[in-house]
Amino acid sequence: KTREKHENDKQPLNTADKLHLHRKMASAGTGTLPGGTAVIDPARNRYPYCVVWSPLPLITWILPFIGHTGICSSTGVIYDFAGPYTINEDHMAFGRPTKYVRLNPASGFGIGWDAAVRDGAEIYSKRMHNLCCDNCHSHVACCLNKMMYKGSSSWTMFSVGWMCFWQGKFVSTRAAVITWLPFLLILSLVVFLSYYHSQA
Predict the structure, then answer these.
(1) Burial class, 110, CB count within 10 angstroms (exposed 0-12 / middle 13-18 / buried 19+)
(2) What phi and psi, each to the nearest 5 degrees, are found at residue 177?
(3) Could you read off the pLDDT of 28-77 as tens digits, one per residue?
C-alpha cells in the first residue's frame, strides 16, 4: 500500500488540481506552479513570458489594431519602450495592459529569455523614439530576435503588431470594453452622420 501510495503521488496533476493550485498560489503571492510554470496574475500586473498590449489614446480609438506594447521577464515584470531613451520597468506608459500573448520560452534558440529582455532594454534605453520607424513594437521585436524566438531573428514591429492583434487575449471583459468601446462609438457616430446627410 505504501508503494502504491508513493506511485499515486507521482501522477501528473489533472486540470482541476492545477486550477486549484493556481488559485491557491496566486492568493499567496507565489509566481509558479509545480514544474516551474509561471503564473499570469493580472491583479498583481504580472505576465511572465508574455508580450503585453495596451490602447493608445486617440490612435487606438480610430485604429483599434494599433497600441502600445511591452515584453515581460520570466517573473512577469513589464518592460516597455516609453519614449526617447526611456525604458519603463513594471509600469506601462499608457496604463495596465488590456491584452497579452503568452509565449513559450522553450521556443527560443538564442540567448536566454531574461538575458534577451535585459539586452533589448539596454539597447532601447539609448535610442530615440520614432512613432513610425523605431517604437515600442520594435523594442519587443529586438528582444525576440535576441532570443531567436521560434528560430527567427527577423521579427519586426509589423510581425509583433500582427501577433498582438490576432493572438492577444484580453485580460478581462472590462479590458475588452476599454479597448473597443471608443472605436465602436466613433464608428456608430460616423454611420449615423452619413445616414443623416444622405437623407437630408
Answers:
(1) middle
(2) -65, -45
(3) 333 444 444 579 999 999 999 999 999 999 999 999 999 999 999 999 99
